[in-house]
Design brief:
The structure is a single chain. By secondary structure, the chain is mainly α. A two-stranded antiparallel ribbon has the order 1-2. The two termini are about 30 Å apart.
């Protein structure tokens, strides 16, 4: 990729432009009525939305050295915003806006724990983008200001201690660049120079962690953190492709696509992950959100076989007491293609598999 290649298109689409456009909402309404897998995902999301409606908004409450409100905000704003479009507004839209306005009025998003700040950027960007037509002009300005002031601008001085994540080569790099870039795309019509700077920085530096997938897709941090890091890697690639039609190499790094095959091999017969590297033996195995996008991007429906087969068992873990389990389940529904559940998929899993790389398996 040429360093001088401009990322933002000259003609930005209106809102929504993150992962979906206005034409996607009627498609999803039809899909959840007619497709069994989509209906199962939607039933879980809708039930979870009802649980959230009965709870107070998220609070800015530190847990030791961390502010985890961003995790909860992603779960609630994504779920409620998606539900509002499938149902056509109503209580879910009102509650999503209430959640959104609560977090943008926090004194800060606690940059000392930048992972949580990045998740908050994702949550607020989705709320701003997907609920744009439901927000008043004053609310839009307030949310926009928070995304810039509490989010994007905190990353500009790379010498500050809280920005040391830019020097790492693990999942933090994916999560932080991913969350910031989604926020940048959301505000790009008003802050084009700032958005271009954030996007360019990510495109130029994400390769530091992208090499971890080479050559066979075996993720050095193990399958538990593959889901976390790769979800944000996919979020970045999906947002760019939706906006520009180009992945800028992010989804073409050696071994990246093959990591979907790796995720087919690491679950044990118990249904839990093979616990090596940074995957604890009791780790809950959630829905693998990245696979729903990767199956469509690379036309490999077989990569979803395990997810669809285990759907009911896995979705039993989605509840408000532990919202982090599948806080991005709405993206799985958005990216899922019903054709990927067909019974005549011919690709078979191998009887043996070798993953070379930093942590061979």
């Amino acid at each position: 990729m040429r360093p001088h290649l401009k990322i933002l298109p000259n003609d930005l689409p209106g809102h929504p432009r993150l992962f979906a456009g206005p034409e996607d909402w009627p498609r999803l309404r039809k899909q959840v009525r007619e497709d069994p897998v989509s209906a199962r995902l939607w039933a879980t999301l809708r039930s979870h939305a009802d649980e959230v409606l009965a709870q107070p908004p998220v609070e800015r409450k530190l847990e030791g050295p961390r502010l985890r409100a961003g995790y909860t905000a992603v779960d609630r704003i994504l779920t409620l915003s998606l539900a509002s479009h499938i149902e056509g507004g109503g209580a879910c839209a009102e509650r999503a806006i209430r959640e959104l306005m609560t977090v943008v009025r926090f004194q800060d998003w606690y940059p000392d724990f930048y992972l949580g700040l990045s998740e908050m950027c994702l949550a607020v960007a989705i709320g701003y983008d997907w609920l744009y037509d439901d927000l008043t002009p004053d609310q839009r300005e307030e949310v926009l200001g928070a995304l810039v002031r509490l989010g994007l601008e905190t990353s500009l001085d790379e010498s500050l201690p809280h920005n040391r994540w830019m020097e790492v080569d693990h999942n933090w790099l994916q999560v932080c660049h991913g969350g910031l870039c989604v926020a940048a795309i959301a505000v790009a019509d008003r802050y084009p120079d700032l958005a271009e700077r954030i996007l360019r920085r990510a495109v130029d530096n994400i390769g530091r962690v992208g090499v971890a997938y080479a050559p066979d897709g075996a993720y050095p941090e193990g399958p538990h953190y593959w889901n976390f890091g790769t979800t944000y890697h996919v979020i970045l690639a999906a947002a760019l492709r939706r906006l520009t039609g180009h992945g800028f190499g992010i989804d073409e790094m050696p071994g990246f696509a093959r990591s979907a095959e790796y995720m087919e091999e690491v679950p044990s017969p118990t249904g839990r992950f093979y616990n090596y590297s940074d995957s604890p033996p009791d780790a809950f195995r959630p829905i693998q959100i990245p696979l729903f996008w990767m199956a469509a991007r690379y036309d490999r429906p077989d990569w979803l076989r395990t997810e669809i087969r285990r759907l009911d068992t896995t979705l039993e873990g989605v509840n408000s007491e532990n919202p982090r389990r599948d806080r991005m389940l709405g993206l799985a529904l958005l990216w899922y293609r019903p054709a990927d559940a067909k019974d005549d998929i011919k690709e078979l899993s191998p009887l043996n598999w070798l993953g070379r790389g930093e942590v061979p398996l």
